[in-house]
Amino acid sequence: MAVKMASAHSARGFGGSNNYIGGNYGMTSQYIGFRPKTNSSPGCFKNDYSNHYIHSGILPVRYIRNAKQQVEGYPKLQRLCRLKEQQIRKYATVPFGARVKTENMVKTLNSWVHNYHLQFDVIMIGALSENQLLYPILSQLPIDKLAAKPGFLFIWASTQKISELSRLLNDPSSWAKRFRRSEELIFVPVDKNSPYYPTEANIPEKQILEELQWHCWMCITGTVRRSTDKELIHCNINTDFAVENQSTGNSAVPNQIYEVAENFSNSTRRLHIIPTSTGLDHPVKMRPGWVIVSPDVILDNFNPERYEKELGAVGQRIPLTNDIEQLRPKTPN
C-alpha cells in the first residue's frame, strides 16, 4: 500500500477541486458551471467545483468517480477482488460479539490474555464515531499481549483527535512501543447529512475550514516483507483513500474499512475493539471472521473455547489459490 496523504477539507463558503472528479453520485444537477482555464488558449474550459459548491452546497468529493468500485475498468483486478472475497468468506469464522461496558473492557481483555492465551494477527481499534479515542482507556488495553508477532494494528481517529492519537502511539511507556507506524488510510464523508460528518461541537469556532476526513494509522509489530511473506500479507488491491458511497450505510465501521484489513492480511484471527458506545446513529454490526468487542454490539455470543474450535475448523491462514497468486499485484524483487 502506497501512502496517500489526502486533504479533504470543505470550507465554509469555499470548496476545493480534484483532478479525478467527474462522477454524478448525489448530484442535484447534471451539469457543473464552467469557466475558461487561466493561462491557456481561448476556448479551453475546466470544471469549476469551487463555484458550484458556493451555489449548490454540494462538496466536490461527491463527483469522485469509482467511489464504490475502485477497480472498475480493470478486468483482472475485478476478478481478483471477486476471488479474494470468495476465499475470505470461505475461511471466515462465524461472527462473534462480546458486549462489554467501557469500564470493564481492560479487565475483560486481560482475562482473555491470562486465562485463555488468546492472540490475534489483526487488531482494529475505534470506529467512525468521535468519542472513541479515550487516551486513559486505550493506553491500558493489553494490545501488546493480544497481538501476535508479526501482527497488524489499525487504529482510527478523526482529524480533531490526531494529536491524541500521536500522543498514544509515541508513548514509550505504553503498548505502542511494540508497534511502528507503517501507513495511513483516509475515509471521507460526502456531505453534512452523512452520519460520519464531524459535528459542529468538534469544530473550533474560529476555524475557517471544516476538516472532514477520518484517519487510520496502520501499525506493524514484527517484520514482514510482501515479496517473501505472501502467506501473511497478500493482495494490495485497496487504495488508501476511501469515499463514502451509496452502499456505505450508517454502520459504525463501513464495510470498505474491514475489507482493507481482510485483503491485506491472510490471517483469520481478527479482533475489533470499539471502546465506547457509538449510539443509535452508528450501530455496531457483526461481520464474519471478526470478534467485535463493544458496549453496543448487537450479538453477545463470544466464548473463547468455542472461538478456538472455530479457528481449528477454518485454520489461522487463508490458503492461496493459483488464480489469486497469478492475478495479485507483486512487489518487484
From TrEMBL:
Keywords: Nucleus
Organism: Dekkera bruxellensis (Brettanomyces custersii)
Keyword Nucleus included in the entry's annotation: yes
InterPro entries: METTL14-like, MT-A70-like
One annotated Gene Ontology cellular component of this protein: RNA N6-methyladenosine methyltransferase complex
Organism lineage string: Eukaryota, Fungi, Dikarya, Ascomycota, Saccharomycotina
GO MF: mRNA binding
Alphabetized Pfam families for the sequence: MT-A70 (PF05063)
Cell compartments where the protein resides: Nucleus
Major subcellular site: nucleus
Descriptive protein name: Karyogamy protein KAR4
Family listed: Belongs to the MT-A70-like family.
Coiled-coil intervals: none
